[in-house]
Design a protein that fits this description.
heterotrimer, A mainly alpha (194), B alpha+beta (232), C mainly alpha (219), B: 232 residues, alpha+beta, two-stranded parallel sheet, 3 helices, 9 strands, C: flat
């Protein structure tokens, strides 16, 4: 695909937002968005892992594709992601033990975050070159963080609202997420066609 | 707590690296074997599936064809697709009828639509220098809106004789394929978009335009090479 | 394990994932494919069955190898094993039906990132014998499939007027297209959860108040 950097950025952040349009990264989206102060750092940590994963996937493909070993792609990607998450964990633990405890299980769970693996898979499927891949990863991370922070902000407000008891909990989060997703559909076509 | 079905996780005081490496190595070996045997086992069925799907698509878009051959076009000319195909060569398919005469050429164009890539196979008639039909290979457009490109008869009629003539020096398409607003088509190289599904219509147009701009100047000057089809 | 409860039998291992601890509606795991793939019943069931295979095969192998895998590298090993079976399913679906493969798209490979699979491996397969582990995993997988179908059927019905690709309301049906689009996934699942909450609260209201058995005795 011959998409420009600008097109890719706009698509991944807005019209093709990883979370609200492509359903990647659902677990943290539904689980960690109870407060912005936790959602935002997690978004940043995930963005970093996404960038690492994108870079490593691109490099791996330089080896695997000429050797016709595409069937090893999945297992290599996920191993690299697991390693990157280990690094991030160690970094966060040292830099900010408070944040480390706040993020809890969700930090190692970045390994199974579909958004991270999804970036590697999609950029391979779309045959992006190096610059496109990096842009895709950056946009993906930004879009992910944006979606998380938006939902977290809404949920913080809703905590003080009068919600019917049958809707409390995950059901409410899902309805809010659906509305957010509907809103983002307004960006459709931006950065896509002519 | 009843322990009948539960065994504790293996306890170890700071497991030695050898044990860890051994475990990972064992897992990797077993998994490697599983993956490779699956890959080998499914290689033939998958290739067969792809060939069947391709033939079905080409025969649908070039009616009357019963056999086809895959060619590639490069700046050096046309050649049959094979082991030595250069990476940036453009693929296309020549479709022949039962008597071995060339019925048409099929090639793929792709562009981003509303929700991902829209891949279209178009049929090209070198004699008339026009596109004679399209078939959608894959798309993820909105059902009920974008997927009208599959069925809308007015939209499909655009492609009965879409003009993709080359200009006199045979180096470029004379008039670039263009998607215009529904109901405003005036020239044979324009495509009337589906009202309400502009983005998807534009994707189809863009895919065809980009493909024809690259492929036709390489293909048409050598079109007689295609005519020597084997009678099947 | 709760003191006083009977040790799990093979049957109860299998059953618990089907409804009581349904992966989608109760444990809320494996959300990525749930939202993305449930645009039609056939896609939902296919994805569910593919996930069930990966779950069962991975949990079986992990359970067989559970005593050989040291604690420190367990997550990495589980992931490698799961990725292997996902690759197997990926190629198997290509060999079976390219049409289905196109429909499910990248989400087949994303089964490896499904929290449900890793979660079961860590919480159950690593601690139990192969038979129990495989049965539990299969039950969870089938429960997952059931949940996917429930969401997919509603979305397909409302969003396209079809079920299993068969048009139920005739050609003049005006589809509620948003149900097939991303927001629909959120709304339908939220809707199901709300329905369950309503049913639960009705049951709680109509049931006679019971005295807590393990709570403190009120004077």
């Amino acid at each position: 695909m011959h998409e420009t950097v600008g097109q890719i950025l706009i698509t991944t952040i807005l019209s093709g937002n990883f979370v609200l349009a492509m359903f990647l990264g659902m677990c943290p989206f539904l689980g960690v968005t109870h407060s912005v102060s936790v959602a935002f750092p997690l978004g940043l940590a995930t963005t970093f892992v996404i960038l690492m994963a994108s870079l490593c996937a691109y490099l791996l493909n330089l080896v695997l594709i000429p050797m016709h070993m595409e069937f090893l792609q999945l297992i290599c990607y996920i191993t690299v992601i697991a390693a990157a998450v280990q690094l991030v964990e160690m970094f966060v633990k040292k830099q900010s033990p408070v944040l480390f405890r706040q993020l809890g299980i969700y930090l190692p769970l970045i390994t199974t975050n579909c958004a991270v693996l999804g970036v590697a898979l999609f950029q391979t499927a779309r045959n992006y070159d190096f610059v496109q891949s990096l842009t895709f990863a950056t946009g993906g991370g930004i879009g992910f963080t944006l979606a998380l922070v938006l939902l977290a902000s809404v949920r913080e407000r809703v905590k003080l609202a009068n919600v019917p008891s049958v809707m409390m909990g995950t059901a409410l989060t899902l309805m809010l997420a659906g509305t957010l997703s509907l809103a983002f559909m307004g960006f459709a076509g931006l950065g896509g066609g002519e | 707590m009843s322990e009948q079905n539960v065994t504790a996780l293996p306890e170890s005081q700071a497991t030695s690296s050898m044990v860890m490496i051994r475990a990972l190595g064992l897992a990797a070996t077993i998994c490697g074997l599983i993956i490779v045997s699956t890959y080998q086992g499914t290689l033939k069925p998958v290739a067969a599936n792809k060939q069947i799907a391709l033939e079905r698509a080409v025969f649908k878009v070039v009616p009357g064809a019963t056999s086809m051959r895959e060619f590639v076009a490069t700046t050096a000319g046309i050649q049959l697709a094979g082991e030595n195909t250069p990476d940036n060569a453009l693929k296309f398919y020549a479709a022949y009828d039962r008597a071995g005469a060339l019925k048409g050429v099929a090639a793929e164009g792709a562009a981003n639509g509303y929700a991902g890539e829209v891949r279209v196979l178009y049929a090209y008639d070198p004699a008339r220098q026009a596109i004679t039909g399209i078939g959608v290979v894959s798309m993820h457009e909105t059902p009920g809106i974008g997927d009208k490109i599959l069925t809308d008869p007015d939209f499909l009629r655009n492609f009965n004789a879409l003009d993709v003539r080359l200009n006199s020096d045979m180096k470029a398409v004379a008039n670039a394929v263009k998607v215009v607003k529904h109901g405003t088509k005036q020239n044979p190289w324009e495509i009337d978009a589906i009202s309400g599904a502009t983005i998807t219509s534009k994707a189809v147009g863009k895919g065809i335009r980009e493909s024809t701009e690259k492929l036709l100047p390489l293909l048409l000057p050598n079109a007689d090479k295609l005519k020597k089809g084997d009678a099947k | 394990m709760i003191p006083g409860r009977n040790p799990p039998t093979n049957w109860s291992e299998f059953i618990e994932g089907l409804w009581q601890r349904n992966p989608i509606f109760v444990m809320v795991l494996g959300m990525c494919p749930t939202m993305a793939i449930t645009t039609s019943s056939i896609n939902s069931i296919s994805m569910g069955l593919a996930t069930t295979f990966v779950l069962a095969a991975s949990c079986w192998l992990i359970s067989v190898m559970r005593n050989l895998i040291p604690k420190e590298v367990r997550i990495a090993t589980y992931i490698v094993i799961i990725a292997t079976f996902v690759t197997v399913v990926d190629y198997a679906i290509q060999a079976i039906s390219l049409g289905l493969y196109e429909a499910l798209g990248a989400y087949i490979k994303l089964i490896v990132a499904n929290c449900l699979v890793l979660g079961r491996a860590e919480a159950h397969a690593a601690r139990n014998k192969p038979v129990a582990a495989t049965l539990n995993a299969t039950g969870m997988g089938l429960g997952f499939t059931l949940g996917l179908f429930m969401i997919g059927a509603v979305r397909e019905l409302l969003g396209a007027g079809k079920l299993f690709g068969v048009s139920l309301f005739g050609p003049d049906y005006q589809p509620w297209v948003v149900m097939i689009l991303p927001p629909g996934g959120f709304f339908v699942m939220g809707g199901w959860l709300m329905l369950f909450a309503i049913v639960r609260s009705r049951k709680a209201k109509s049931a006679p108040p019971t005295v807590a058995v393990t709570g403190a005795q009120n004077a």
